[in-house]
């Protein structure tokens, strides 16, 4: 006999401020030439701009309150597209962006955390997003060549100047979160995390204890895990959902501070992803999917 679970908590109060629905939207896949393997080019704005704008607007219609982008996506084109589609922003919409990565060519993602550069990029993000204050500004990656205190200090200065409300980090360890938190409150951490990639379990747990939002990027990435006869497919069939929906539902059940940010360039896929919020997994399903030796 299985033990039923209640639906996961639908919202999370990021930074102790505005509650946002936990299932957000990531804009990376809206760029042309998106590759499913690293490094993703994400170099040019979408050739079918109307389709991309329609996806963004439909996301908000479906209840998305957290939209994540970055200054590196299409060399700022991702931020411009968010503004074109959604500005003026609703009071319940939280726009998150990231800075700290240089794109000298389509195949290069170069970490650059010089404080002056970070402050300049924040100013450009403000202009492209048509904002006076960035609701959530994340350090895209920590540059190992620049003291962490200098990088976080630049973000703190922006916060002190009223240009940033909340500060976040991306692809970090617990130790790095602790070091940054000693300088300024960290409201969010964005790491890759999904059924197939769970190396950040410790970070998820730490963020939950500290009340920090954990933004899971590439949250679906099920690939071969969705094969016929596999555990993921069996759970999906049992609950009447798709493997992708179960992958997202597992994240929503994983911890109340996990905010998946799936991206897509298709309205149909967007609607499928958003329906994952209605998928309820029981204890047996959670145990199966969460097993250390889970292989789908």
From TrEMBL:
Transmembrane segments: none annotated. Keywords: Oxidoreductase. Pfam families: Aldo_ket_red (PF00248). Residues 22-289 form the NADP-dependent oxidoreductase domain. SUPFAM superfamilies: NAD(P)-linked oxidoreductase. This is Aldo/keto reductase. It comes from Streptomyces polygonati.
